[in-house]
Amino acid sequence: MNIAFWSAEDGTGITSGMVAVASVCANAWNRKAILMQSRNQDGDLQEKLEAALPAGMVGEERPYYVLDGLDYLLWQVKNKKLTRAMLKDSIVPIVKGRMYYLPQGVRGKPRVYPQALKEGMWKVIRQAEQLSDLTFVDCGSGEDELSAYILAKADVVVVGLSQERQNLDAYFQQRHAFRGRVVYLVNQYQQESIYNKNNLNRLYRIQEDKLGVIPHNPVFRHASDKGRADRFVRRHIRCITADYQAYFMQELMQTTRLILKSAGIAE
After folding, report:
1. CB neighbours (10 Å) of residue 43?
2. What sections of 28-116 are H helices per DSSP?
3. CA torsion, ordered 119, 124, 127, 129, to nearest 10 deg
4. Pseudo-torsion of CA 246, 249, 251, 255, nearest 10°?
5. Do residues 186 and 197 make contact, with C-beta atoms less than 8 angstroms apart?
6. Distance, CA of 230 to CA of 50 (rounded, Å)
7. Of 3, 62, 98, 159, which residue is most buried, by most CB within 10 angstroms?
8. What's 165-196 look like in SS3?
9. Longest Cα pair distance anywhere in the chain, in angstroms?
10. 207 Cβ partners below 8 Å, 6+ apart?
11. 10-residue block means of pLDDT along the chain (267 residues)?
12. Element housing 40 (H / E)
């Protein structure tokens, strides 16, 4: 089951939102998850995770050219040699046995596979599905050919929204049609906004079970910026009502449930 995260606009926190949701899936629902970014992204997913790259993937200067991470797998697709074992060797554990990350590769976008990038990326995603219960793909923001290709094939598309009226109108006036099921996500959610959850449901005719939120939380945002997003979620996953993170975690858990329900996993 592959779940793609995307937003029409910048600044909706789609990457940190994906990490938070994936962490709940791994730590509360005991689902094995693999996280990755599409090849058009800048590799900032690693910054949200405590992903210690294996030896040979640390980005130091080398006297020879080495492909690794996603770059390596795309090269193997190009040469029709991609195997499950290659992917297994390329992913980095965040929580061993439950949550893994596929690095982009330290060399940046090479020029060795431009014609087959879309098909190659999809074959990597499909291979990841064979190793996991859930594959999460960060497609970033804005329109581009690669993201459109992945979104068109995803089982579930999570669309990041802001609470800005102009941006909301612009998106829903030309709402995208996706093959898979769609869940809308407001990250950095402000309950006090005039465009809160209830008004978004009403104004844009979004069904209640298709709109999730992750509340604004400076503590989580700081943890995410420091590469500790998953640690934050694990620490507070069983928080009680009196816990000062209770509201944040309750909404995050509910949003994750909505996404898993759309994926046919939760009731």
Report:
1. 16
2. 69-78, 84-90
3. -100
4. -160
5. yes
6. 8
7. 3
8. HHHHHHHHHCCCCCCCEEEEEEEEECCCCCCC
9. 60
10. 201
11. 95 94 96 90 78 49 62 89 94 94 71 68 95 96 89 96 95 84 96 95 94 96 92 88 86 97 87
12. none
Which stretches within the chain are classed as H helix? Answer: 14-27, 69-78, 84-90, 117-131, 145-153, 165-173, 197-203, 218-225, 229-236, 246-262
d(CA 16, CA 6): 12
Compute the distance between CA of residue 122 and CA of residue 75 in angstroms, rounded to an integer. Answer: 13
Q: 3-state DSSP call for residue 163?
A: coil
Structure tokens at 57: 């993937």
Q: How many CA atoms lie less than 13 Å away from 239 in the CB half-sphere? A: 20
Tell me the angle at which helices 14-27 and 218-225 cross, rounded to the nearest 10 degrees.
90
Count CB neighbours of 105 within 10 A: 23
The pTM assigned to this predicted structure is 0.91
Place of tokens 């509360």: 28
> Which residues is 38 bridged to in the sheet?
none
Distance CA 137, CA 126 (A): 11
Beta-carbon contacts of 134 under 8 Å, excluding residues fewer than 6 positions away, are 1, 2, 3, 22, 25, 31, 32, 33, 34, 263
- Relative to beta strand 156-161, strand 181-189 is parallel
